[in-house]
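Review form for a predicted model. The reviewer records the input and the model, then writes brief findings.
Reviewer: anonymous (R2)
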Amino acid sequence: MNDTESCCRLSVDEELIIKGKTLLQTEQERLEAKAKLFSLLGSEVRLKIVKLFLSYERMCVCDLSDVLEMKQSPISQHLRKLKDGGLLLSKREGMTIFYSINPTAKVELMQIVEG
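Model under review:
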């Protein structure tokens, strides 16, 4: 703690400090992954997109544009972030790219989005 902050505790619980630091060190990778996931889902549009994909197996950007009543360009940007974050997969069929939930992320996304 620096000099500009104040704390009213009477003594330092050294054991608590050590255990807390150890806990965070051992959980570092998991916490980073969770923070990344929450960052991706922190956008209302991306959260809506994930909700749709949890209900419908696959959709293209045109489908999402119609449902969300948004232009395709911003939706494509959101899809790119979700795909780069490992939450979505894409598959080209002819001229159309269909997106779907990455099966490895589906259970965790369902727990977060569906409650």
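Findings: The domain at 14-114 is CATH 1.10.10.10 (Arc Repressor Mutant, subunit A).
Further findings: The chain has a mean pLDDT of 92.
Recommendation: see findings above.
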